[in-house]
Amino acid sequence: MRKKIVAVVALVALAGLVVFAMILKQREREDREQQLTSYYGIKLGASKNEVGYALGYPAEVQEPFRPDPARGGMQVSNSLKLTKAGDVEGTPSSLPGGSALKKYDEWHYKFGPDRVTVRFDPTDGTAMSVICTKEGGLWGSKCRRILGVSNGSSEADVLNALGTPEDQKLTLIWKTMAYPSLGLTLLLTKGRVYSIGKTLPNRS
Question: What average pLDDT does the segment 83-96 reach?
Answer without folding.
Answer: 68
